[in-house]
Amino acid sequence: METNSLSLINLREEAEQVNYTAMLNSYLREFSNWSRYLGIPKYDEALAAHFRSTGYDFHIRIDFSSIGQEVYAPLNYYSESGRHIFHFPIVKRDLLTDKITELAPTDMIALIVQYGQEQYPEIEADITQNRLVNSIENLEKYLENFIKHDLNANAVEMGFIQAEQSLILGHSVHPLPKSKQGFNDDDLFKYSPETAGRFQLHYFLIDAENVIEKTADDILPSVQLKKELLVLAANDTRVMELLNTHPAFIVVPMHPWEANYLLQQDDVLALQQDGKLFSLGGWGAEFTPTSSVRTVYNEECDWMFKFSLHVKITNSERINLYPELHRGYDISRLLKTPWGQNLQKDFPEIDFIVDPAFIAVTDNNGEVINGFNISIRRNPFKNEAQHKNVTLIAALCQDSILGEPSRLTNIIKTAAQKSNKPVTRVAEDWFKQYLHICIRPMVSILNKYGLACEFHQQNVMVELDKNLFPAKLYFRDNQGFFFRTGKADEILAAIPGIADESKSIIDEEYIAPKYTYYLMMNNLLGVVNAFGVNGLADEKRLLDIVYKELKSLEAIDETGLVSYIINSRDWSVKGNLLTSLHNMNEANVSLEYPAVYLDHPNPLNKFFFCKNLIKPERKDIVYTRYFPKEDVTLSIRPFDIDRDLEMVHHWFNQEQAKPVWKMDGPIRGLELFYRTIIPSDATHSFIGEVNGVPNFTFEPYWPARDLVGAYYECLPTDYGTHLLVAPIEKEKKFAYQSLQVALDYLFAQPEVGKCIGEAAVESRAMRALANRIGYQQQRVIDMPHKSANLTFLYREWYWDKNPGTKEIKIEL
């Protein structure tokens, strides 16, 4: 992008919109009071006037009617994987006055808290609002720096540290993606990866009795560091005297910001006073932060250092917990055993960047001082290896920065030019290759070796080959290694007692939900979303590819992971916004990884989504059937809001219909109902005609997205239908024939497995009709708005009860 065009960009506005987008997507993931809203309303003058003024007719509507408000976010891109792109501004409407005003992101937080306190009375707005402002301000500074230094975050080829420092926009589904509370402005530029800050490490000299140090390698890192320091400080009288007079003391490196923090703590001051700890200041080569901020890198050093950092980054102070130090040490030892050697031989496409060593420091009472906990990581990107074309997945999935094409776009388009193939073909092939080196190895490693990893996009890097295709994955993060109990005997046989300190052997049932969040929701669906947002591939098609790949692994998976991923109606996902609103510290020492987890619709269920039923593209008649006995012809067509709204409003407001349908009221409310269900994935409405006269409406629905699906063991192939016959003369209702036509059409769809019913228990007429047509009673379910008879109907049952229906052929 040229400098003059950059000068036209309002960086504050840009930073605000990036943060707002992340916060809104977090909300939509964690709350259910929203829907898509399609079109410009006819009976809502205030909303219609606003939509006409903006030119946008597709929105996310957030229903805050319980507090007298509603919010509209214009949609630029609606994502199948769940991360959407918006136009701005976002607006709120006061339902009492109809006044529509712009809604600032901090005011959106206030609305969320006001609405959410009924369910979560302990949440508060102030802290999250402050962090959000901090995140916006920080991103604005990073963007200014990005322009000032003419940085390139979108290059096709990048070395390790350039790629690590290219995540300018931050976590895409976190409400506070660039929040760093604890850094002042100088700290922000000196210690942030976004600014490529460089600094010397601070060194301490500490009594060996207060140091815990272990390594899976031959030499303790502190021994090598001490040798280097003896050379570096040869001309410093004080440091040399301390090193020479305390030969048994240990040299401990530290992040300089954390060193200053520690030197103000009472337990550290006590060690100083007792002559057990000395601060030596900054020495040696300069290090620079990786994307995690607290993990630092030098291209000539054998190690990367992962320090504790008492800075609140997104949801937590970044503190290494003592058991986490042992996890890196444990996996490093295991990989040197035949168990680990076989694993690496079986899966060469996965490189585990382990943390073979750690250093911890105790106070005068023998308690670990968490600020000193240091994980020491193998550096596979030393010297020439630093130039490998490897990138963090989170950075690869990053949106366009300041209007420039994203890095993923540049990679795919360049790869297409190299191969002389269409971009869409290359995008799909690239994704399949990524899937091949990601899903199959991780499922197989879990089954054969019992090893699970927090394989999310902040922990995984991909190396690209000469054709710019995924060649290898790197996993890093000492705290993210776990073992399932089903393989505990083999792991303990390799190294007895290995999990005593790390607590890394966990129950089988805990693995599937957590692994699904990290591997699927965060990692793979993040990649799917990036392809979709950048217009490189259709998300639904990529999700279908993921489903098929996992389905092919179901038979070899003994852990239940694959079945959970592909068959569950909902996945358990972390609620970053609610975790922030609860002011939870995810690095809490007393509770490992505290956070809010919630159910989220499984995107892979979309493999069984029936567009003909839920998102029909036609408005004409889709099915007609003649009933010779009654001498009537029944037809069905998708609901057309411009043609049918006034008619069904009249039906619903007839006195005999009100107590049954409970959909009477002003037409403005009914229009809102239809403008939200038409673009939804849950249901649609069809109009039925008898001899060409509108006579009934039926609503096919998908329990995988409908409320009822949460009240029984829902399958993604389940569908249901509601039947509403117009309030006319009894002899003209043809209820049985109307339901037959609906079921004919429903069972003609290959995606449908069975049809379910959930008529209210007091509805005797509907129960009799359902029994007559073939439904079988399962049980009574208690939903918030009614107690219902759950009934099932399979094709064979329907065909048996209704001779001749099996032979009906419907052209779809």
UniProtKB/TrEMBL annotation:
Residues 637-686 form the Acyltransferase MbtK/IucB-like conserved domain. SMART domains: AlcB. Pfam families: Acetyltransf_8, FhuF, IucA_IucC. InterPro entries: Acyl_CoA_acyltransferase, Acyltransferase_MbtK/IucB-like, Aerobactin_biosyn_IucA/IucC_N, IucA/IucC-like_C, LucA/IucC-like. Pathway: Siderophore biosynthesis. Belongs to the IucA/IucC family. This is Siderophore synthetase component. It comes from Mucilaginibacter lappiensis.
